[in-house]
Design goal:
The chain has a two-stranded antiparallel sheet. Strands 2-3 form a two-stranded antiparallel sheet. The protein has one domain. Strand 2 and strand 3 form a beta hairpin. The model has no long low-confidence stretch (mean pLDDT 87). The radius of gyration is 16 Å and the shape is flat. It has 2 helices and 4 strands. Helix 1 runs antiparallel to helix 2.
């Protein structure tokens, strides 16, 4: 399911960025995530956690369609 959602969002973002040249409203995007990333530092290692979601309008539609496709199977 996670792979299907990632592919749906990626394809949606790709289509949105290409179609955004003709209709700029489709290329509007939202960035959400952890900024700055969470760091856990010890004496001998550093662990960094962070995630950023960059979605445009068509990418969101792609995510919804991928979730719908998953629920129908």
């Amino acid at each position: 399911m996670i792979v299907l959602l990632l592919v749906g969002g990626w394809l949606g973002n790709l289509v949105g960025s290409l179609a955004g040249k003709a209709l700029p409203v489709l290329a509007r995007s939202v960035n959400a995530g952890i900024d700055p990333p969470f760091k856990l530092a010890a004496e001998f290692f550093t662990l960094t956690f962070g995630v950023t979601l960059h979605l445009n309008v068509v990418g969101l539609v792609g995510l919804v369609l991928a979730a719908f496709a998953w629920s129908r199977s």
